[in-house]
């Protein structure tokens, strides 16, 4: 009965409208404006996320931006992002930073985890936190931070769950359908962005890796457009040529005659080009390949340049020492074979000499036999010494000895060609530390080159001057050997190249182009150099400088 | 009830006030009004007056005059279509209770959408309604000041009562001159409706001192001026006072709600196209007899308001005198006395009783009532 009474009272107050008022357009308008503002802000947030990926904003900045905007329409105090990495759920970002509880990189356990529940169910969870509960691991965080309600949303990209976003509020909020669908949209967009950012980074990393590989290769690499301009180049190229090579003409750079441009050749043949070229006293191996686009059209050329000077020098040395070893071996054999008959000839001649008086005509003839035999023996002796290839030991030696040895070997031969050898040896020359055999080899090469240079021309007086002396340069003591001829001289354009292995102007069979290259190699091994001064038609001077013995 | 509330629209009262309708709309920010009316009012020329007033202030307008007596849900729907199609932004209702109730219902649908039956009951309206200016021409329904709109549900054959604060018009313009075109019968019928409003509001469970004043005034005025008003179309004094009575009774019942007479009358009106006042005048004395027990003092008060000398009488005696007075008045002005006279079928009494039992107006009836008791009253009045 009492209840009925109350019912009736309630009905009456309803009827008379004590609790209701006429609806006003002002409040309605206000509601609508707020609603519109909210919708606008929501759009702006979604828009921002999409944009921020493009301008390469970091995830932290993106979250900060979003939360600042979210705050104007929802009571949001904290956002945290956890992402799936190899079947683990890892806390990756928290904003604001001071609301950190677990450290970034914390791996969320699967048991009693709200986040995991979201990942597994793929459903949003709205959770109100009660003060004295600890059902889930995350609740401790929220209690510590004073968060009273959280909205957890799975981030799903292309049907795959990639993480969870947690939106925390310090009050017990209520979200309606519209709000939830906005948050879902927000998260969908976020998921796409995170996924994009990940892919973008992957591409970037692999691109970087390639670039670093490209840069680190010790061969020079150029990417060249079809006009022959350098588009890209690696560190090795930069180091070799020094300076900015971008848009430089490759032919000029490599001192190649534009008519022989490898780019032109590739354009014509569409096939790789291999060449050996000489740049700045270096020998380089050049390989160019066409670069094709998807339609198989060539749009650029990739060029490798490999400085093979050192390699060639070593090769040349090997070749020459091989050659010498063979000659040496043969010479030793011959010398040995000749030694016995010569001993017999000399012995017999000596015996016969005693039987004749010095005025006798026969004595003169016999003495000729004897002295020629003696000379033969000396030559053989020299040959044997020179061909002793086994010991390349460094020891104190005189550069004069090397000269004498070589002259003993080929001096007469040169003189026979109407060439005068003027020997100006400094008798008090300083000793050097080195191998006399090797130094002799240099002298031999220089002498032969001088002889060759004189052979080809017709002048009244062919002279080779061999000079040794000690000098002091920049506080260093040097021993200098100079071989000067008044032969044909060297064309200026070749001056850079004559020390390159296999560079020769001589006809095949005569020169191999190894002499100077090997000589320079030996000089450098002794801590010295070979310099050249030459004038075409006037003659050349080769100067070997070696440091004096310490 | 310790806490109460009294609401009413802006009211403009007086001869010739109808000409202010256009300007009133303008004041509310209207630019294009829908005028809801019925053929009778149109014929009497009042619609033209309203149109002229709108034209004068440069208001665009659209008319919707297809409202019938006891307005139907379908008419409301059509009215709403007219409102939306013509991009109206305010509503004028001119005519009797039917036109004004219909205008209010159109206003509901115009901004809230949906079907009118969705708003049946208390406080179902969510969004504000367009500005409404109401011009009553019958002095009876009180709808121009009330928070009620009664619309017939054609499918279920019943009157739906919609109650909401938002249904209180923004401006009510009461021009006694409009009453001059009413027939004697219509004057009598609406006059008794006014009396019913006064009495039911006065004895209502929701009555407050504020409504009591209005009810008392309305009852006295009816006692003095209904007879002369029925007697003459041109008795200005009687018309003006009846218009005031109608307004005050409207204010009273709009805030104190009604009782069993209206609950039962709605049940009858849902089935028969009868004048609301006619049905009320038949039921009023029978319901008063039933209710007397609930509040003899208040019924005795009414005798005083009607100018009777009740000295030496008990409240019950004075109350009975009031009932006799009402019966006499009805007889004097020639309104129907029995339900059977106006064509109500006896077989339908049971069904109508059930409907009346659930009518919202029954809630404030001073005496508890059962379906059987309602049936008993119906039979007495048949
Ligand atoms: N004294 C010189 N005068 C003129 N040209 C010289 C002289 N010495 C060297 N050259 C030039 O330098 C080139 C390279 O000399 P190098 O000794 O390296 O090779 P080569 O003499 O041609 O062959 P080989 O391997 O038999 O010595 C020669 O072909 C010659 O053109
Ligand atoms: Fe009424
Ligand atoms: Mg040579």
Describe the structure.
In chain A, 47% of the residues lie in helices and 23% in strands. Chain A is of the alpha+beta class and 550 residues long. Chain A has four domains: 25-201, Beta-Lactamase, CATH 3.30.450.40; 218-307, Beta-Lactamase (2-Layer Sandwich); 311-389, Helix Hairpins, CATH 1.10.287; 391-550, Heat Shock Protein 90 (2-Layer Sandwich), CATH 3.30.565.10. In chain A, the strands form four sheets. A five-stranded antiparallel β-sheet of chain A has the order 2-1-5-4-3, with helices on both faces. Chain A has a five-stranded antiparallel β-sheet with strand order 7-6-10-9-8. In chain A, strands 12-14-15-17-16 form a five-stranded mixed β-sheet, covered by helices on one side. In chain A, a hairpin with a 2-residue loop joins β14 (462-473) and β15. Chain A starts with a helix and ends with a strand. With 382 residues, chain B is α/β, with parallel strands linked by helices. Chain B has two domains: 10-178, 3-Layer(aba) Sandwich (Rossmann fold); 182-381, Dehydroquinate synthase-like - alpha domain (Dehydroquinate synthase-like, alpha domain, Up-down Bundle), CATH 1.20.1090. Chain B is 50% helix and 11% strand. Chain B has a six-stranded parallel β-sheet with strand order 1-9-6-4-2-3, sandwiched between helices. A three-stranded mixed β-sheet of chain B has the order 5-8-7. In chain B, α10 (276-291) runs antiparallel to α12 (315-333). Chain B starts with 9 loop residues before the first strand and ends with a helix. The mean pLDDT of chain B is 91. Classes of the chains: A alpha+beta (550), B alpha/beta (382). The A-B interface holds A 8-9, 11-18, 20-25, 27-28 and B 1, 3-5, 7, 122-123, 125-129, 147, 163-166, 168, 205-206, 255-257, 360, 363-364. The structure holds adenosine-5'-triphosphate (ATP), fe (ii) ion and magnesium ion.
